[in-house]
Design goal:
Blueprint: H1 3-16, H2 90-111, H3 118-137
Length: 154
């Protein structure tokens, strides 16, 4: 026989036994019998609602679920207040206003169906572009002036 005919015969056997059910003995199982699921439907555990629970006796009234008093804050971390925001100058505030104000005016006029004249449209677009350029120029991410840098030079 040729290798091709052997392979064809194996495939025929696989296809013929496709719908056959396999019966496993308990010795063939790769797990212990104690881990087999019962044949019946699974049981559900129903927790009673919070209203139906009995109140705690007086001696346990101050205790939480963990058995410790709820008023005990030992080990609780409270972060310090954040530092104040840095003060910005007027030019930066105007640049942010122009960056968001120009498109906001255009969106508002489109939503309310206002008819814009040419100079109004030009002013809104110029404010957006001018605010963006002003913020990029004032960013200050240029090379260090004191000769020290905080990164590697490749």
């Amino acid at each position: 026989m040729t290798p091709q005919s052997d392979e064809d015969e194996v495939w025929r056997q696989i296809v013929a036994s496709f719908n056959d059910t396999s019966e496993l003995d308990s010795a063939d199982q790769p797990w212990p019998d104690s881990e087999n699921l019962p044949a019946g439907p699974p049981r559900r555990v129903v927790k009673p609602p919070e209203e139906a629970r009995q109140p705690l006796p007086e001696e346990f009234a101050g205790l939480g679920r963990g058995g410790e008093a709820e008023t005990d804050d030992e080990g609780h971390y409270v972060p310090p207040p954040p530092p104040p925001l840095p003060k910005t100058d007027t030019a930066t505030k105007l640049a942010w206003l122009a960056l968001f104000g120009g498109p906001a005016y255009l969106l508002l006029s489109a939503a309310l169906s206002w008819r814009l004249q040419g100079w109004m449209l030009f002013t809104a677009v110029a404010a957006f572009i001018g605010g963006f350029v002003a913020l990029v120029v004032r960013m200050g991410d240029g090379p260090p002036t004191d000769g020290w840098d905080d990164g590697a030079v490749v």
